[in-house]
Amino acid sequence: MLESLLEIGVEIDKSNAINTTLDDYAGSEDEDSVETDILPPQVPLTRLANDKSLFQDWLREQREDVYKSIRDSNAGDGGTLPPGSCLGPNPRDTDDASIINSPREYQTELFERAKERNIIAVLDTGTGKTLIAALLLRHIIEQELDDRRAGQAHRLAFFLVDKVALVHQQYRVLEANLDFPMDSFTGDSGGAIYTRDFWNQTVEKKTVIVCTAEVLHQCLSHSFIRMEQTNLLIFDEAHHAKRNHPYARIVKDFYATLEKGNSKRPRVLGMTASPVDAKTNVHVAAAQLEGLLHCEIATVNDPTVFTRAAINKPSEGFIEYQNMNIPFETVLWQRLHQLVGQNRVFTRLFTYSRDCTTELGRWAADRVWRLWLTKEEADKIEARTERDFSQMDFLRPMTALDVERGAIEAVRQAYQLMKDHDFSELKFDQFHLSHKLLKLIQHLDENFDPEKDKCVVFAEQRLTVALLADIFQQPSLSLQGYRAGRFMGSPSTNHGDLSMTLAEQKSTIKKFRSGELNCLFATSAGEEGIDIPDCNIVIRFDLYKTVIQYIQSRGRARRVDSKFYQMIEVRNQAHRQLVTEIRDHENKLREFCNMLPEDRLITGCDYDIEYHLSKERCHRIYKVPSTGAVLTYNVSIVVLASFVSSLPHPADALRNSADYIVHNVGGGFQCEVLLPDVSPIKSAIGQRASSKQVAKCSAAFEMCLKLKKLKHLDENLRSTFTKRLPVMRNARLAITSKKRAEYPMKRKPTAWSILGFPDRLFVTVIKLSNPEALGRPSRPLALLTRRPLPRIAAFPIYFGDQRMSDVECFPLPAAISCHQDHTDGLNQFTLRIFKDVFSKEYASEAGKMPYFFAPLVHTHSSKSLVSGNIDSHTIIDWSCIQRIQKTPDYVEWEDQPGYVFDDKFAIDPYDGSRKFYTICRRPDVNSTDSQLPGFPKQGRVRASEKSEGPLDIWSSVVSSIWHRSRGNLERRRDLPVIEAEYISLRRNLLDQFDIGDEALRKCFLVFQTLKISVIPTDVVAMAYNLPAIIYRLESNLIVLEACKSMGLDLRPNLALEAMTKDSDNTEDAPEDQINLQQGMGKNYERLEFLGDAFLKMSTTIALFSHFPDCDEFQYHVDRMVLICNKNLFNNALEMKLEESIRTKGFDRSSWYPEGLELLKGRKYGGKNSKHALADKSIADVCEALIGAAYMTTRGGKNFDMAIQAVTTFVNHSNHKMTTYGDYYAAYKIPEWQSSNPRAVHYDLADQIEKKMGYKFRYPRLLRSAFTHPSYGSLYEGIPNYQRLEFLGDALLDMVCVDYLFCKFPGADPQWLTEHKMAMVSNQFLGCLCVSLDLQKHMVSMSGGLQQEIFDYVTAITEARIQAEDEAETSGLGRAAYARNYWMNEKQPPKSLPDIVEAYIGAIFVDSEYNYDEVQRFFDAHVLPYFEDIHIYDTYAKNHPVTRLSNMLAIELHCKNWRIMSSETDDEDREFAATKIVAGVVIHGAVRESAFSESGRYAKLKVAQKLLRRLKGMSVEAFRKTFDCNCP
């Protein structure tokens, strides 16, 4: 209990237990009972600590969910991208995506079946039916080309579709996947296609035609082409083949008429999701379809093969609504009906508008007239009415003309009535909208995220689609983020209907794909075949009528975790029955397919391997002679999979696994296995087998034999390749940012351990640059040590109320010789300083004293102190030392003149906190008078003794003595009263503070218990600064000793900055610091930012020098090995760097010398001898030391020390350099660089010299910088620019970081990072490339890339011209245009920034690694854009975290929020790497969370998620949702 009370500062009165005398107790200034007029800062549980605790509690509670989310994110994220990075196109987002790179096995099997016979492939929407068609087309056309070469008549393959829009879609897909001449036709292609000459030319030149079935039917009917001239008919959506549909007519009229055995009969392939599309007997309908198309239905009998093939199928749900209203006529309906109710053109609209009152609501019932009855439509109706009357012969009398005129006038009046009608503002209520529509909006509001989701809503009628799209665009509904559009069929003959042209349909799909639209309302035109990409929510506003509608509309949702919703009316039995019937019908279809004969079912994969192998009598076995390892058919699959996983897999690799292609051969199966492109062997073919699985095993067996023969498999059948998957490597190289371990912390420098009686001492002068700031006279002191100390940088100390001075500690060059009396005097002076000033009495042992203090004879401003020739011995005030040495106790004052009290240092030996500067004697004041307020508060006075009023002078002074001892003390009334000033206890002079009114420190003293110290007051005044000075000096010495042990001679201030960690989360903003240690000076964050860039550059140059022919991917992997935090951390531990990192702020108990015997005063144990450090913090200090080494020698343009630091910390054979010249010495010029250039290379070098001012020695090196990867090296024997780009990227990064670091010394790391991002962004470098006109020199073999570059050059050039025009208009001149004009332009093609970086790399290599050339490029071409760096503040503000901060603080007026991050407790089980979780805490609750591999990207992701959630939210809604009550 006693210990706990002492911990919280409660005074314990021990007088009843212990009989103490006056001399038995000597207080210490460091006792917990100390009183001071400077109140220590209050330490309540801050909001930051609250939020941190809350976030950790939330993380523990969510542990299982967190781990699940981590696994999900591992599976789905595919890696995290930095802000501003350009994502490549998703293959699902492009019409012409390649689909033949890796066909799924069931598709291959169906393709093999289609080669042998006519089939109808029945597969779900989205399972890849088009791929089967593409494979079959390739097979048929290859045969056709052989026939043509043999002189046979030319034939065409036809891909037939039912809709015009599908012609263009399927043509683009096939064109992207087949390198054969093809064409496409529709009825809009013109009359030219309906001639024999046209088709004769087409048959000669083309191989594939994509067209509507009607086009082929018409041409066959007119014999423009004959069925004998076709070799393949593909029927897309084959279920349409019935009755007189063009599909049916083509087969009935032309295919069936050919004799069955006719060799010219084309192969037929039908494709559908369901063989029937009506409520009929499945078996009968399927049989009819098979008979009509002369095909056999083939499908998959195991639906799980789709799951294994990563085919996404949506989950299903229902949206229930009520429909209690009865259709009625609105006022507008009634007025229009009076005018045109008899006109049959309007009949459908009147019917629809009336029904619309219940289906969509009264507002929509009126709104439909505005959408339909446009001026163009009104004119058409007038013409149609006039035509109708002209056809009525019986109305020829004159009265009929009046009727006709009246009808036409009525149409005009109806249009004017509608135009003038006052449509009320739409409101979200049941008066304006139906319950069905309200439920739709409500459901989307709850389940649709406009920023990441895409939704398709299917309705039955075109007018409904148009109304829904219109309603969702009404501003009065405040549907934020919805970008609605409509999709419907081509014009029809129906009166009173809407339509879209083919061009409008294509435009709508394009907008939906690009994200310009995110909510599409569609009719059945969007159900069948039309590729509506990237959709994850499908809603049937109107229920389907057939199972094919159900299957196809459901199939539009193809993204992962998609949803398919069906709106049904509550208590509507017809709806319920329809849903049940459709599902039952689908199940029957499945059952029907499963009942097909075995030879028409594709099982996807037979898993019973052992069963099939048991039937194989001839399967082989290979035994490795040296080890006995056995390779069997069964094992070969596993061995090969393990080998493939060991290969390096680039991020853009098309195939990262072994692919097995099984062929039907002579009643059996034969398989070919294909390995990724990086494999040393690409393919192998197995022997024939009786089953697919055994065939696969045979192929794997053959491949393993090949690999073993070439020694790619070792004697144990394991891969000889090193596993180098980037994700795996990065995961293993990642380290934790949590505090995982405690390490010993050096408290004292090694210099203090040099003890013994000294024969000479080195003097370090300690002086103030602004001594007046101290507020009283002082003089410099000397610190005498047994070894010379380094010159450390001046540092500030603070005296309160904005008063401060720099402390200068500079060593004198010459040591002083020490005699016994000198040493004894210095020792006695030092001991007296500790005893009188700091209440610590040590035993006199000069040999154990690590250092000595001494007063100087000079003032702070004396120029002699800084003179290089000064005698170290003469500057010491030896007379003061001797006086103290001769006065063993205190100054006698009794029987002395009154001035003995003037300007003295008075101490209370019983309370270390009571120390005073005396002023003078006050004869006018008696000891019984009241004490002044400036006297320190009562010390050891019982509560019962305390009075409400002030004590008298004598009582207040003796109150430091225990009660019992004070009772034995005689009160002397003859004591003189001395005016004095109380010396307040200043705990940390390294941090600013306020001290308040100086007058409050005045008091009166009597000297019955007080003592007068022999130490002069000007020495005392300076001595009070010693704790802060010694703390900072020791910190410098500790870090310098650590640097010296690593061979780094750093500037002391940079070394200390690099090794200072002043909070738990140094990397965060100042206001978010946890456990911030005040007064430690600058932390390592800025230097770490600089060192990281130099580390990246130096290791990049080293790798490029060692391996000039390595590929870029391997460069990245090898560099990661060198610079990863794990490597830095491990090497730092080997050097025990963690012991010297400074993590503890100034502590008044830790600055005293160690090893001395303490006689009086509080004794402190070795507390805080350890500190907790995160692994990443230790790695960050390594980078900061590299930055400090760079800055130490930067002025001399010398990188050697920084290079030595890199070599020390990476500790790897790939970086052994110690000087800058070692880099180029390691570079062996490759043959391709030094080979004789061609004329085109010289010409390029001449152009670049004129444009850029640099003359290349190696023109072929320059050519490499402009060679796109698509331009093969076989053409000129020159590699592409990727290697040089890798080098140039690091060089550019370094030169930009160096500029920002030095130009803005006060900028924090976050600001530096954000503005560096602008300087090295692809967006800026693309602009720079165009401004330097470099893009025209790039050679490539990609036609699409050239168009992309042209479009970007046009856009960025126009932007610059506009900026120049604006500058000229403002009177600044065109040359003064705003250099940030590129910020709002689109992202450039990646090749443009790549060649800028490659060019930088090229000039660096060509100039023999002359970094000045990189600097010149930066100064001449990059810097002009960033001379006014602040115009790019908005670029930084686009960072999601910054935008979230601005939104919460400025727009939503919330102050109580922060983003927290922490490592999860669950590690990746395979890679032993942790995931970071970030959460946004708003008013005491975690409102959003996200996961990533780093804290930076986790915060980015969670900010993006919350921004999407807050978009469009009003302040009132925010306050209600997040319980915000901020003023």
Indicate the proportion of strand residues: 5-15%
**Number of DSSP strands?**
37
Q: Give the biggest sheet.
A: 8 strands, parallel
Number of helices: 51
Distance between the termini: 45 Å
Structural class: alpha/beta
Question: What shape does the CA trace take?
Answer: elongated
Low-confidence stretches: 1-45, 66-97, 303-310, 602-616, 651-655, 723-732, 1466-1473
Radius of gyration: 44 Å
Helix proportion range: 40-55%
Oligomer: single chain
Give the overall average pLDDT: 79
Structure description:
The protein has 51 helices and 37 strands. Helix 36 (1175-1193) packs antiparallel against helix 37, helix 41 (1259-1265) runs antiparallel to helix 46 and helix 42 (1282-1303) crosses helix 47 (1411-1422). It is an alpha/beta fold and 1527 residues long.
Core attributes:
1527 residues; alpha/beta; eight-stranded parallel sheet; six-stranded parallel sheet; 51 helices; 41% helix; elongated; disordered N terminus
Q: Secondary structure elements and their pairing?
A:
Layout: H1 2-7, H2 47-61, H3 63-76, H4 105-116, E1 119-122, H5 129-149, E2 156-161, H6 164-177, E3 182-185, H7 196-205, E4 208-212, H8 213-221, E5 230-236, H9 246-255, E6 267-272, H10 282-293, E7 296-300, H11 304-308, E8 315-321, H12 331-340, H13 347-359, H14 362-372, H15 375-390, H16 398-420, H17 435-447, E9 455-458, H18 462-471, E10 484-487, H19 502-514, E11 519-522, E12 537-540, H20 547-554, E13 563-569, H21 573-594, E14 601-602, H22 609-614, E15 621-623, E16 630-632, H23 633-645, E17 659-665, E18 668-674, E19 683-685, H24 692-709, H25 726-733, E20 739-744, E21 760-768, E22 781-785, E23 795-800, E24 803-811, E25 816-817, H26 820-838, E26 841-842, E27 852-855, H27 878-886, E28 905-907, E29 915-921, H28 953-958, H29 963-967, E30 978-982, E31 1002-1005, E32 1011-1013, H30 1017-1023, H31 1026-1045, H32 1052-1058, H33 1085-1106, H34 1112-1123, H35 1125-1134, E33 1158-1160, E34 1170-1174, H36 1175-1193, H37 1200-1210, H38 1221-1226, H39 1231-1234, H40 1239-1252, H41 1259-1265, H42 1282-1303, H43 1309-1320, H44 1322-1331, H45 1343-1369, H46 1391-1406, ...
Parallel strand pairs: 1-6, 1-7, 2-4, 2-5, 3-4, 5-6, 7-14, 8-13, 9-11, 9-12, 10-11, 12-13
Antiparallel strand pairs: 15-16, 17-18, 18-19, 20-34, 21-22, 21-24, 21-25, 22-27, 23-24, 26-33, 28-29, 28-32, 29-30, 30-31, 35-36, 36-37
Helix pairs in contact: 4-5, 8-9, 12-16, 13-14, 14-18, 15-16, 23-24, 26-27, 31-32, 32-36, 33-34, 33-36, 33-42, 35-36, 36-37, 40-41, 41-46, 42-43, 42-46, 42-47, 44-46, 46-47, 49-50
